[in-house]
Amino acid sequence: MTIPFYVAPEQLVRDKAEFARKGIARGRSLVAMDYADGVLMIAENPSTALRKISELYDRIAFAGVGRYNEFETLRKAGIRQADLTGYLYSRDDVTAMGLATAFSQTLGMIFIRDPKPFEVEILITELSANGGDHRLFRISYDGTLYDERRFVAIGGKAERLSEALEGLWRPGMSLREAFAAGEEAFRQAEGRESEGWEIAALDANAGRRAFRRIDLSEVTG
Amino acid sequence: MKGRPFGPLPIDVPVPGSSFTDLLDALGMSPKLEIPEGASVPSVPEGTTVLAVRYEGGVVMAGDRRATEGHLIAHRQVRKVFPADRYSAIAIAGIAGLAIDMVRLFQVELEHYEKIEGVALSLEGKASFLARLVRNQLPLAFQGLAVVPLFAGYDTITNTGRVFSYDVVGGRYEETEFATTGSGARLAKSFLRTTYETGMGASDVAALAVKALVAASQEDTATGGPDLLRGILPNVVRIDSSGFQELTDEEIHPLAQEAVETIR
Q1: Nearest Cβ partner of A83 from B6, B11, B20?
Q2: In chain B, N or C terminus with fewer CB closer than 10 Å?
């Protein structure tokens, strides 16, 4: 039997984190922000088949960047968790907080346990029930959970997108205005035009299932 | 992961496909349906008459509000017609407790599939899945605890309303005009057979459905007629190209009034 080389835990964690960050930085970014009727999510995504944003529960959406197969695994697990909780107890018992904690625990466990960490960053958004701030939870590759307000960005250009949105976001923007702000933020952060948009919203006027996909023609022209 | 779905996500659970029912099975959380040998069946509430009628461009479903327990009335305002998803509805007859649970599971199943796969099941697919849920209850049916649903919806592939009826072993039958189930089913069906006309519109069919329920309530003690004094009205829903829609009490009241006045 061979004895494995000793690697200091600090070194191991640093290497894994660097590996995950590099993977995420290669992918495209995504933003979510409050607007007049709910939460708008915009992702740069040339594909119309492989989705980054999707419905998680009645008032909760999931978005992921990084490796598709990895955040797809997380998305499906999240839907299973949400539907199980709602079926066993009540639809009201499914909350973004509960799900975000579960995602955080799962990513944290994978980061420590598996030789290769997930190269993903995910976002859980929830419509507020009482008209206050909506929930925007960001979860990084190592399971760290951030509770954001008003707007949030994930992916390689997340920091620059957030900086750009700081100047562009205003409270109570219409759907069109919010999309225009997101588009401009991408332009400033990336320094180029987008290769295709995936747009979705949690719309307070959409009924029980608040999630809806938005066609580009609805927010432009 | 057995038991409560908390803590880390169920990532390591081998789940076959996109079915919520299979997920419950994989987690050992499916309802246990075995009844011990020789056990006597308790007296439990039963749902009675529901029906579905097709028309040009959609389908109407209706149900009375009574649940019976033996010769007694168990509930006066029970609901037996439910939305299954955006384009379909399910109505139930038989053991109420089991039936309502079946509806809940069916609703979660359809939405779960849609979210996991990114597209909804076809109407045909939904109807087949419901047949499987009914068949799963077969051991209970032999104990006298039968649940028989009706399923109807708008098929976005063929652009028509479609109706499916079931039997206790999970047999699935597509009906071309109308379907009924429950204790007053035969009475309602006889009524529909003599009054249904091809080419009827949505409002004609809704009025006809309410009349058929009232006709059944005249002969069958387990079927509740409209109680206009107390405002207990049948549930009526309509599904067409714009999706599932429940008729309001204001819309149903005149239909019930007319039915009560005209049915002998």
Answers
A1: B20
A2: C
A22, part of any domain: no
Size of interface A-B (CB pairs under 8 A): 63
Task: Name the residue facing B8 among A79, A98, A106 (closest C-beta).
Answer: A106
A55–B contact, CB cutoff 8 A: yes
Answer yes or no: pTM beyond 0.80.
yes
Give me the amino acid identity at A42: I
Could you read off the pLDDT of B38-61 as tens digits, one per residue? 777 778 888 889 999 999 899 999
The radius of gyration computed from the CA coordinates of chain B, to the nearest angstrom, equals: 19
pLDDT band at B6 (very low <50, low <70, confident <90, very high): low
A17 in any annotated domain? no
pLDDT at B215 over 90: yes
The answer to whether residue A37 sits within a structural domain is: yes
Rounded Cα gap, residues B53 and B238, in angstroms: 10
Structural domains in chain A (count):
1
Residue A86 touches chain B, beta carbons under 8 Å: yes
A72 touches chain B (CB under 8 A): no
Give mean pLDDT, residues B2-21: 68
- Domains of chain B in sequence order: 20-26+44-262 (3.60.20.10)
Smallest CA-to-CA distance from B62 within B160, B191, B169 is with: B191
